[in-house]
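Quick one, C-alpha cells below:
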C-alpha cells in the first residue's frame, strides 16, 4: 500500500516540479520508485509542451490567422487553446493517478495521450466487410455505418471523420477553397488512400489507443447536460451545504432521467403507422409532408422525430434567408441530419443534441396546441423531477 505522503509527492510533480524531484536523488522524500515514475512522465510532457509551444508560436502561428465564423476567433487561438487544454488534462489525469496510487508511463495503453495502439489482422475478413470498415471513414455516412455495423474500426472511423470534417467545414466556410482548405482536403484524401492500402492490400488496420478514447456524441451530450447540476453541487460544497461531490452521480442521474423519458414515450406513443418512408423525417423541407401526422394521430411514435425534423427545416430556412441556400453554412446541418438518421433505426425517440433543445422550447411556446405535443410537455416536466442516488 502506497502511503499518502508518497502519493501526494507524486501528484505535486505534475505542477512543473518533476525535474526537481528527479534531481533530488538522495532525498528520501522523493527517491521512491512511484514518485520517480510520475516525475519522469510529468517532465517528459512538460518539456514536449514548452518546446512545441515555442516552435509553434515563433514559426507557425502566422499561417493560421484565419478568423472562424460565428465564434469570431482565429484558428491560431484555437490551436493555442488546444495546446493548453492538452496540458491541463494531462495535469488533472496525472494528479488523479497519483492520488489513486496508479502507475504512470507515457505511451502505455492506459494513457489517454498514448500514440501506441493495436494492429488488427484482417486476413480472414471478407472484401465486403473491409469495404464497410473503409466506408465508416467517409464523412457523415460513417455515422450510419457505425450504427448498423458496430465495431472498433467503424466506431473510430465515424468519430474521426466527423471531427476532421467539422474542422474542415469551419475553414471552408471562413475562407472558401483556398490553400489551407486544399491542404486539409489533400491530407484527408491521403489518409483514405493509406487506409484503403492497409485494409485491402496489407489486410491490417492500426487503431491507436487515443482513437478508442474519443467519446461518442451521445456521451458528450450526457456530460454537457450533467455539468450544470454538478457545478450547482460544487457551489453547495463551497458554502458547506453539501458534503459529497461526484460527477459520476450526476451522470448516472442524467442517464436515469433519459431512461424514464424514453420509457414514458414508448408507453404513451404507440401508433407506428406512417405513410412515407421514415428516412425523409430528418431531410429539411421534405419532412413537411409529415405535419398532417401530428394532427391526425394523438399517439404517433414519430412526434419527437417529426418535431426535430421540422426544426432542421426552420434552421435551413433561416440560414437560406440570411446567407442564401447555397451558403456553406447549410453544410453544418448535415451533422444533426445524419446523426438523427443513424440513431432513428434503433431509437425512434432519438434526441439530437442542440436540435432537441430548440424543439423543446418551441414545444413549450405552443401552449399545447396539439394533444400529442401537450403530452410531450407533461413528460418533459416529469423528467426534471426524477432523481437518482448512486449507492
Amino acid at each position: 500500500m502506497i502511503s499518502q505522503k508518497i502519493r501526494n509527492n507524486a501528484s505535486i510533480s505534475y505542477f512543473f516540479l518533476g525535474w526537481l524531484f528527479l534531481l533530488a536523488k538522495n532525498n528520501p522524500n522523493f527517491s521512491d520508485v512511484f514518485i520517480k515514475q510520475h516525475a519522469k512522465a510529468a517532465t517528459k510532457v512538460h518539456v514536449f509542451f514548452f518546446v512545441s509551444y515555442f516552435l509553434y508560436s515563433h514559426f507557425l502561428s502566422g499561417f493560421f490567422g484565419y478568423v472562424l465564423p460565428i465564434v469570431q476567433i482565429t484558428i491560431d487561438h484555437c490551436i493555442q487553446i488546444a495546446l493548453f487544454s492538452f496540458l491541463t488534462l494531462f495535469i488533472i489525469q496525472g494528479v488523479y493517478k497519483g492520488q489513486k496510487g496508479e502507475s504512470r508511463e507515457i505511451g502505455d495503453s492506459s494513457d489517454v495521450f498514448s500514440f501506441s495502439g493495436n494492429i488488427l489482422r484482417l486476413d480472414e475478413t471478407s472484401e465486403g466487410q473491409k469495404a464497410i470498415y473503409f466506408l465508416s471513414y467517409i464523412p457523415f455516412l460513417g455515422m450510419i455505418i457505425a450504427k448498423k455495423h458496430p465495431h472498433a474500426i467503424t466506431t473510430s472511423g465515424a468519430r474521426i471523420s466527423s471531427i476532421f470534417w467539422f474542422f474542415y467545414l469551419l475553414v471552408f466556410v471562413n475562407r472558401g477553397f483556398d490553400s489551407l482548405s486544399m491542404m486539409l482536403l489533400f491530407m484527408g484524401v491521403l489518409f483514405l488512400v493509406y487506409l484503403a492500402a492497409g485494409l485491402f492490400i496489407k489486410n491490417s488496420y492500426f487503431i491507436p489507443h487515443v482513437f478508442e478514447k474519443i467519446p461518442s456524441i451521445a456521451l458528450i451530450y450526457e456530460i454537457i447536460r450533467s455539468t450544470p447540476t454538478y457545478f450547482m453541487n460544487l457551489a453547495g460544497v463551497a458554502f458547506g451545504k453539501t458534503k459529497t461531490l461526484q460527477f459520476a452521480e450526476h451522470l448516472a442521474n442524467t442517464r436515469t432521467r433519459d431512461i424514464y423519458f424514453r420509457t414514458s414515450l414508448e408507453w404513451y406513443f404507440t401508433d407506428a403507422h406512417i405513410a412515407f418512408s421514415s428516412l425523409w423525417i430528418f431531410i429539411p423541407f421534405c419532412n413537411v409532408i409529415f405535419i398532417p401526422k401530428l394532427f391526425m394521430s394523438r399517439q404517433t411514435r414519430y412526434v419527437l422525430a417529426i418535431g426535430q425534423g421540422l426544426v432542421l427545416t426552420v434552421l435551413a430556412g433561416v440560414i437560406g434567408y440570411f446567407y442564401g441556400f447555397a451558403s456553406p453554412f447549410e453544410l453544418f446541418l448535415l451533422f444533426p441530419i445524419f446523426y438523427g438518421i443513424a440513431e432513428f433505426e434503433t431509437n425512434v425517440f432519438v434526441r439530437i443534441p442542440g436540435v432537441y433543445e430548440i424543439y423543446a422550447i418551441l414545444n413549450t411556446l405552443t401552449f399545447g396546441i396539439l394533444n400529442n405535443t401537450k403530452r410531450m410537455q407533461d413528460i418533459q416536466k416529469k423528467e426534471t423531477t426524477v432523481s437518482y442516488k448512486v449507492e
